[in-house]
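pinned: reference chain
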Amino acid sequence: MPDTAVNLLAKHYAVAHGRVVESAERTEDSQFAKSMGTRVHSVAWQVWHIARWDDRFAEIMIDKTPDLGGRFGSPGQIWARESLAKQWGLPVGQMGRRDTGTGMDDEPADALRLPGKAVVLDYVQRVFAHLQAVLKAMPDASLFAVMADDPDGDSYADNI
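pinned: its structure tokens
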């Protein structure tokens, strides 16, 4: 695979995702959901949070890139499509911006009870695989195109 900007981006995302998953898998089940204090959320919370934003990122890329919309269909998130917040008994609309954990106060974030490690990692790995497919399908020229409705006139690359 030639070293295009998109290929390098996909490669580095794959490395980061692999490290996240490996670290989570190596965490003992008894420690996975354990917080290290109100400002240091659990491994479960951290990997969920990363996956939530990658789920949103894939949705944005499909929505804003015509070439991707044709390949992947209607944009959407695994999270929403499968109603995971409801399935997992999480407080919809109370988990920060777009229910991703961003902007949550520390205490509610620390109190968030995610399902077991296998369930969380299943979601995480499916999101990571989906984002990889989206990134690999993205035309190089699109990466540096200015997003039509970006208030700052930023390109996709600027927003990554």
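why pinned: The domain at 5-28+40-159 is CATH 1.20.120.450 (Four Helix Bundle (Hemerythrin (Met), subunit A)). Residues 5-26 form the longest helix (22 residues).
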